[in-house]
Design goal:
Keywords: Signal. The chain has 673 residues and is mostly beta strands. Helices cover 1% and strands 47% of the residues. It is built from one helix and 50 strands. The strands form ten sheets. Strands 2, 4, 5, 7, 12, 13, 14 and 16 form an eight-stranded antiparallel beta sheet that branches. The longest helix is centred in the last third of the chain and has 4 residues.
Length: 673
C-alpha cells in the first residue's frame, strides 16, 4: 500500500502586504467547539446639523482644532495632526465607521481613524485610512497606516495605492472589520466605488477596541457626515502568547504493528545540503529513479534496476538557487519514458523527457509543453495519473496572489501534451490564487481536492478552506453531488470552513484522508475564537460540513510572512484503523504525536507516532542546524516501501545562508518492510 505519511518539511509562502479582495460572507460550518458569544450592536450617526461652534459633547477632540460651521465639521488650517473621535463609542470585534469628507487643499491628508487608544501623554495609537489629492509630484493616492504614539509605526505603512480624488469633492471613506486582524477599506464618490478591499494587519501588533473618528495631518478639511456601527462589548486583542503543545490525556491505546525495518540500502551519491528542498524517488516496475540536486546544485537524475548497486546519473541544465519551493517531480508514461520537472518558483518551464525508455542519459529538455505564453511563471509542478491511467501535469501559472491552475494531459503515441481542461481549474481572476494539493484518489473512485485562497504573497492572507471532487479531473462536484462550473473562482466549490484572512490557516497544511466509510476528512490548522492555534478535521455530514476541533493547545503560532515558512504545526492525512477508529498524525513544536479519534472524530487517545529506525532519523553531520530529510517513493513495489534519505541545513526564508556551508550529504535509498 502506498504510504500516506508526509515529509516533515512543508512549503509556505508570503510577502509584503498589498491590496486584497472585496469582503464576502460565507456560511460557517457547524462546529464541535463553542463559538464566541453573540454581541449586541451600537449605532450612531452625525450630520452636524446644529449651530456653529464647538463639535459638542458627542465628540472628544484629541488633537488640533475642530469646529462646526455651516452644518459641517471643520478643521481649519494649521500645523500638526488633528484627531476627533466619537465619545462613548467603543469598537467591538465587528464594526464599520465612515465619514464623508472634503479636502479643501492639495497636499494634505485626511481620512478615518479606528481603534484609537490614548497613551496618557497626549499621543494616540490607531489605524487610519487616509487620502491625499496630490502630494508634490505624486498623483492622488491612499494609505492605510498604523500609528504609534501619533507617529507612523515601524513598518506602519500597511497598504497604499492610487485613487482618483480631487480637492473640493466629497468622498465617503469607510473602515470596517468582521474579524480580528482584517480591515475592510473603501472609498466612494456619490455611490461610485474607488476602492474596495480587505487588508490584513499584523496580529503581533494588533490594535483592538478603542474609539473611532476623523483625521487630518494639517487641517483644511470639511466633514459632511459621519456614522458608525459596532458590536458590543468593546473588543480586546487576544494575546495567547507563544504556542504551547499540551498533550491530550485520554485512554491507553496501542497502534497496530507498523514497525518498519531496513531490508537493504543503496547509496545514490552526494547531494547539496545547504538548504532544504524536496527531492524525488520513483519506482516503476523494475526501474528506480532519483531526482535530486548534486553538490554543485545541478538538477540530476539517477537510475538503477531494482536490486542493483550501480546507479547511472545524468546532470541536467538547471541549477538550484536558495528557494525551497523548487523541488523535483518525476513520472513515467505508459511507453516507459521518464518525465522530469522542477526548480521553478514563478520561473519559465523546466521540463525534460527521455528519448529512449528507462535511459536517463537520453533526457532532453523540452522548452514548451502546450503554450509558451502560460509557461513563463511556473510553480508547483506535479505529475500524476488520471482515472484512465493517462499522465497529467498540473502547475500554477502566475504568482502568489495572482495565478491560475492548469492541467495538461500527455499522449504517448504522439509524444505531445494538450490541455486536459479548456479553462484553468482554479482562477484567481487577477486578485488571488488557489493553493491546491495534488488530487487524492479516494476509495469511492473520485479524486478529491482541498484548497485555500490567498490574496497576496503574505501567508496571513490565506483564507476560505474549500473542497471539490471529480471522477475524471474534468467534471467537478461539491460533496453533495452538485456540479461546479469551471474555472473555480473565489467562493466556488464547497466552502468547508470560511476562515478569514489572518485566521491561522497555512497553505499546504490541508490534508485529505478518509474514514472507514470512505468519507473525505480534511485536516488543517487555524486559530480558535481565543486566538490559539488548533488542529481541526472537517467532514461532510448530513448535508453540511462539520468542523471538529481536535487539539486543546494554548498559544498561537503566527501564520504570516513570506518565503518558505518554518512550520510549528504539521498535519497529515487522517486514515482509518482496523478497529474503526481514525489515526491522525501531527507534529506540534517538534513533538511527533498521533491522535486516535473515534468514528465521530472525538479524541480517544494520544500516543507517540511510530518512528523509523535510528539509522534513518538520526543526523550524522556535525554541522550545526542540520536535519534529516525523507521522501517516500512516488511509485510502488511488491518488495516493500522505498524511502529516500538525505540531510540538509534548515531554511533561511529562501535567502542565502552566509558561508561556510555544510559538506554535501550522502543520498541513500532504503527498502523498508
Amino acid at each position: 500500500m502506498k504510504p500516506t505519511r508526509r515529509s516533515a518539511l512543508k512549503i509556505g509562502g508570503a510577502a509584503i502586504l498589498t491590496t486584497a479582495s472585496p469582503a464576502t460572507s460565507f456560511a460557517a460550518p457547524r462546529q464541535t467547539t463553542p463559538p464566541s458569544p453573540p454581541s449586541s450592536v451600537h449605532n450612531w450617526e452625525d450630520d452636524f446639523a446644529r449651530a456653529d461652534g464647538g463639535p459638542g459633547a458627542d465628540w472628544n477632540i484629541l488633537r488640533g482644532d475642530w469646529t462646526i460651521s455651516d452644518h459641517r465639521l471643520i478643521s481649519p488650517s494649521g500645523p500638526g495632526e488633528r484627531l476627533a473621535v466619537r465619545a462613548g463609542f467603543a469598537l467591538g470585534r465587528r464594526f464599520t465607521v465612515s465619514a464623508t469628507i472634503r479636502g479643501l487643499r492639495d497636499d494634505y491628508w485626511y481620512g478615518v481613524a479606528v481603534n484609537v487608544s490614548e497613551n496618557g501623554d497626549g499621543t494616540q495609537n490607531f489605524y487610519v485610512l487616509r487620502v491625499v489629492t496630490r502630494d508634490g509630484s505624486r498623483p492622488p493616492h491612499w494609505q492605510l497606516l498604523q500609528m504609534s504614539e501619533s507617529h507612523v509605526a515601524d513598518d506602519g505603512l500597511l497598504a497604499s495605492g492610487p485613487v482618483p480624488v480631487v480637492k473640493d469633492h466629497d468622498y465617503t471613506i469607510t473602515v470596517g472589520s468582521k474579524s480580528l486582524g482584517v480591515l475592510h477599506v473603501s472609498i466612494e464618490e456619490e455611490g461610485t466605488s474607488l476602492l474596495d478591499n480587505d487588508l490584513v494587519v499584523p496580529l503581533d501588533t494588533l490594535l483592538s477596541g478603542g474609539q473611532a473618528g476623523v483625521y487630518t495631518n494639517a487641517g483644511h478639511i470639511s466633514v459632511d457626515r459621519a456614522r458608525g456601527t459596532t458590536s458590543v462589548p468593546e473588543s480586546s486583542a487576544p494575546d495567547p502568547g507563544p504556542l504551547q503543545y499540551i498533550p491530550f490525556e485520554g485512554s491507553d491505546y496501542t497502534l497496530p504493528d507498523t514497525h518498519d525495518s531496513v531490508v537493504e540500502s543503496s547509496v545514490v551519491g552526494l547531494n547539496w545540503s545547504g538548504h532544504p528542498v524536496r527531492q524525488a524517488l520513483l519506482t516503476s516496475g523494475t526501474d528506480q529513479y532519483v531526482g535530486y540536486y548534486d553538490p554543485d546544485r545541478r538538477m540530476t537524475v539517477a537510475h538503477r534496476q531494482l536490486g542493483a548497486d550501480e546507479w547511472t546519473t545524468q546532470s541536467l541544465d538547471s541549477v538550484l538557487g536558495w528557494d525551497s519551493h523548487n523541488y523535483v517531480t518525476m513520472a513515467v508514461d505508459s511507453a516507459g519514458h521518464l518525465h522530469v520537472s522542477g526548480n521553478m518558483h514563478g520561473d519559465p518551464l523546466v521540463y525534460f523527457r527521455t528519448t529512449r525508455p528507462a535511459d536517463v542519459t537520453s533526457l532532453t529538455r523540452v522548452t514548451t509543453m502546450v503554450d509558451a505564453a502560460t509557461e513563463l511563471k511556473v510553480t508547483y509542478p506535479e505529475f500524476f495519473q488520471n482515472a484512465s491511467g493517462d499522465l497529467v501535469f498540473r502547475y500554477r501559472d502566475g504568482g502568489s496572489g495572482n495565478g491560475v491552475d492548469l492541467y495538461n494531459v500527455y499522449d504517448p503515441a504522439t509524444t505531445q501534451w494538450s490541455r486536459l481542461l479548456d479553462t484553468p481549474l482554479h482562477d484567481g481572476e487577477g486578485r488571488r490564487n488557489a493553493y491546491v494539493e495534488r488530487p487524492v484518489l479516494g476509495p469511492d473512485g473520485n479524486f478529491h481536492i482541498a484548497w485555500v485562497w490567498r490574496d497576496t504573497p503574505d501567508a496571513a492572507t490565506n483564507a476560505l478552506l474549500s473542497y471539490a471532487k471529480s471522477p475524471d479531473l474534468e467534471n467537478w462536484y461539491r460533496a453533495d453531488g452538485t456540479p461546479i462550473s469551471l474555472p473555480m473562482t473565489y467562493g466556488a466549490g464547497d466552502i468547508v470552513d470560511p476562515i478569514p484572512m489572518n485566521g491561522g490557516i497555512l497553505n499546504g497544511n490541508s490534508d485529505i484522508g478518509f474514514d472507514g466509510r470512505g468519507r473525505a476528512l480534511i485536516a488543517y490548522n487555524k486559530y480558535d475564537h481565543e486566538g490559539n492555534t488548533q488542529v481541526y478535521i472537517a467532514r461532510y455530514e448530513n448535508r453540511g460540513w462539520v468542523s471538529h476541533q481536535i487539539s486543546q493547545w494554548k498559544g498561537r503560532w503566527l501564520v504570516a510572512g513570506y518565503g518558505t515558512l518554518i512550520t510549528q504545526v504539521i498535519t497529515t492525512a487522517p486514515e482509518p484503523l482496523p478497529d474503526g477508529n481514525i489515526r491522525f498524525d501531527f507534529i506540534c513544536k517538534g513533538n511527533k504525536r498521533t491522535f486516535i479519534l473515534s468514528p465521530a472524530l472525538r479524541p480517544i487517545a494520544e500516543v507517540d507516532t511510530p518512528q523509523l529506525p535510528a539509522e534513518i532519523t538520526e543526523v550524522r553531520s556535525d554541522f550545526a542546524g542540520m536535519h534529516t530529510r525523507r521522501r517516500w517513493d512516488d511509485g510502488e513495489s511488491e518488495d516493500g516501501r522505498y524511502l529516500l534519505r538525505w540531510e540538509s541545513r534548515g531554511s533561511n526564508g529562501d535567502q542565502p545562508w552566509p558561508p561556510p556551508h555544510p559538506e554535501p550529504s550522502t543520498l541513500e535509498v532504503y527498502l523498508m518492510r
